[in-house]
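Quick one before lunch.
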Amino acid sequence: EKGGYEHFMLKEIFEQPKSVHDTMRGRLLVDEGVIKMAGIWDHVERFKNANRIIIIACGTSWHAGLIGEYLIEEYARIPVEVEYASEFRYRNPIITDKDVVIAISQSGETADTMAALKLAKEKGAFIYGICNVVDSSIARITDAGSYTHAGPEIGVASTKAFTAQLTILTLIAFKLGKHNGNLGNAEFMSLIAELDAIPKKIEDVLSTTHELTQNIAKDFVKATNFLYLGRGYNYPAALEGALKLKEISYIHAEGYPAAEMKHGPIALIDENMPIVIIAPKKGHYDKIVSNVQEIKARKGKIIAVVNKGDRQVSEMADYVIEIPETSECFSPIVASVPLQLLAYYIAVYRGANVDQPRNLAKSVTVE
Ligand code: M6R
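Model of the 5-amino-5-deoxy-1-O-phosphono-D-mannitol complex:
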């Protein structure tokens, strides 16, 4: 049932060209220039007139939510807040019937997310679900929603559900932006054509980085700490990269916005600190270059995720992982793939049980 792969996690990483495609199937109609999503369309005025959108989630789904915030604010210009479900619930949040709450959950059974949704519902908000498991508890209590269609995810560390969540959030942002006039037709058309090409880019990145990440992983089996840095859309991708590593390898890892480094974490950098830096060409590249220079000056070990043909960051990096170029908003989908592989192989070489890491369960049904 692992389809010839050693672990479910590896199988699920490799399924991503298909799962992202499945999530778009029947929704993204490139030739007609249309995004079809009944859940959004049936309530489009609710979204359009919302005071704000509040995204609630936990763990990896919360990271997807952060990227959703960037997407929806940039393309639909609707204010978005992203909250950890557990914090939202216990701080007497201000919610009205003009708010739209989006819950993101792979399992659809996460107790913290469920409890937060119930509270939002009581206060009259319109609640929307982005779940992977069909007919799950969260899917059932929401007013409307979109399934991710990533297929069953067995590995405790979420991989393909994450990229499917990003795909859905992208579709929602583009659909709302087109409808409310913030996303012009020409830009919409070029963005959806690019989105359509993402499964192929994931396929490319899987084939060009699979062996490479294994080789890099061998050098970090004994590491005790890792930093992950990114800016803009790739800041949440850095958080997610760090979460993957800590969950399955038990190496302490932290994600940071690259510019925040100088406000504290830079104190940690020496020749023993591995730093994964996500630095594609589009999106604050020059700023990232100066962050990398600061790390280099302190002899940190740099693992850089860059676009093909990159020079400036690559010259300073100890390890270079190349990914194909895309618009900034899609880069977390592509950049996440080699980070999943890197975490996977580090964990495997440490002899860890990657599919069922200690202390963790696939769905967290206690608050
Ligand atoms: O099923 P959910 O998406 O609601 O789960 C939320 C988190 O428990 C989950 O993402 C967790 O952080 C994963 N183990 C991450 O790999």
